[in-house]
Amino acid sequence: MNLPMVSRTAASLLLVGLLAGCGSDSTAPAAAPAVVAPTTFTVAGTAATGAALDGATITIIGSDGTSYPAAGAAPIVTGADGSYSIVLPLSAKPPFVVTAVKNDVSLVSVVAEAKDSTANVTPVTNLIASRLSSSGDPAKLAAEFLADPKLIDLAKITTSVAEVVKLVQPLMDAVGDSTNPLSGNIQVAVTNGTGADKMLDSLSISITPNSASTVNIAVSVKQKQAEGEQPVVIAFSGGTGATAPAATLPTVVATDLVTSGNATLISDFLQRVTACYALPQTDRVASGGTTAADIKAAACKDVFAGNDPTSFKSSGAIVSSTGAWSSIFNANAVGVKFDRGSYEFTRGNGDLVIAFRSTDSAGNSNNQTLAVRTDTDGKLRAIGNQYKYNGGVNAYQQLRNFINQPAADYYSTGYNLTVNATADVADVAKVVVTSPSGKTLVLMPSSGSNYFPLVKSDSTISGTSFLRLARQYLDTGNTGDPALADTSVFFSPDRFDAAAILAIPAQARWKFDYYLKSAPTVIDATQYFTTRARATTIAELQTQPLANMVDTFYASVKAQQTVAGATTFVAANPADPAQLKFDWVVPTGALEPTSIQVYGNYVSAPLTRSPFNDKKAVKSSDRTGTIACSSGGSGDTHCDSAGKYAASVRFNGMHLWAQDAAGRDFAHFYAVYTVTIP
Prior knowledge:
678 residues, 31 strands
């Protein structure tokens, strides 16, 4: 190619410059630093139940069984906002199971790959883990995938997340949440009480073992509902023979949900209650004070609506040394702590019902519920349900052992319909209870009993307030109905199978109509009570260990039985027949009893036997306790003039009672009488 002279010169100079730059050490660019391959990755997320799960211990288990952090290393604990972060070596073997444990709260999540990942740990991820588990039990997932590493992979996790999101989508839409519940960033929502956090506040998820390889699952929405309205529950099974949810949750109206930030408000309320109990009794109450008006500490007044303890009323009880909040007046009730607050539902009048745990200085805990109201300053304060009369209902489960007739032993589950014989119901002639299915039952007062027993169809008083729906003999070879043998107690006419029990909502609403002796045909008051959990199926009950009377006590009772159907048993303390002494043991996994009770009959007139019962609250740490004879009034003569059990008393049974965190009652009953088995 021919170029003009000037162009050739320029081109030559350019070429020389380019050649001079090639291979010249003085002008060569610096070598790029070597890329160091990463040797670790991070798993982080948020543990929450609505409220942040602070102080929970995080453990991650790889598919080779290696746990992180390693044994002896500093534990990984969630912060006050529920956040956690843990660094793992790239050599860690995926997939991973993540657990967050705080006291008896245990939640599970999963991670598919060995790379930087977000893994939230919530009741929703617990449900996702349940869908991956071969038994349906999230607590077993880590052990299960060690045996079968193919149990979890990215595709299966994605499928399970999609299934759960589809189920709860109506609630996610109502709160404006589109975050992936497993791997999305929910930290801001948990901090602000919005979006994903509001969804967690409003979800009720129960996963109940039904056997070693199956679980029953129920999902519903906690929200505002009219009195008597029953919530919609989506029920399905997990584990062997797992079923998919038959439907999604129904459409949720956003205005029926609890307000944003509710978990923080509940936590604040419980902290203020704790502050009241941190004070000595002399600072809480005026000297010698026994009524609400005698509460003087500002920290204690701050617990109640309008800062006024006299505003509180719950099922007939007002604040006093013998009524509601009686522990405020107790000099020994110092340092009681209140925590684990959760939203349960909103009453028709807008008040919230919350659940919480109280723990005394000795470590004894109780689970309770309470109606609270949003006060003028935006804080929650106690108001109570404002009901006129005593009442309540709880899911109830019982194992009844017949001391001298093991062939009659049976399980039963149902509901305890409680109307305690307190002063507010002194003029109540009967209470007609309408079940969630519309069936009616009658409770009536009975001399000697500290509660209203159920009335049988023949108008006789049963001596129990426990409505037995499902029942089954321990002897699996006997498929008969225990109701035909144990005619002294109360059974529903229809024997409920597992499907019928599972159809009952966790937050079932029961109507109580009160009739007075002075106007026996007129309803004086109608009150609605809501359960926190449904009754268990028999199979579910069989998976729950129970406390037992010690063998020597059991043998003592058996030896002292003198006639079929009755006994003169006066316990292991015959030198003091005013007391019955119990001793028990609590196996691993069993609920700790917090009440002991004895039942019996006394001859109140020739040929007339009247039922009675005496009970005693015990600490969860106790393993022995005594019940004193306690008169139920002028018509009750089962205690003699010296306060001891009268000679005409015949005991027919006793039980150890406990309650789980969901508010379900469990009793191990020891029957001294015998029955005729068809």
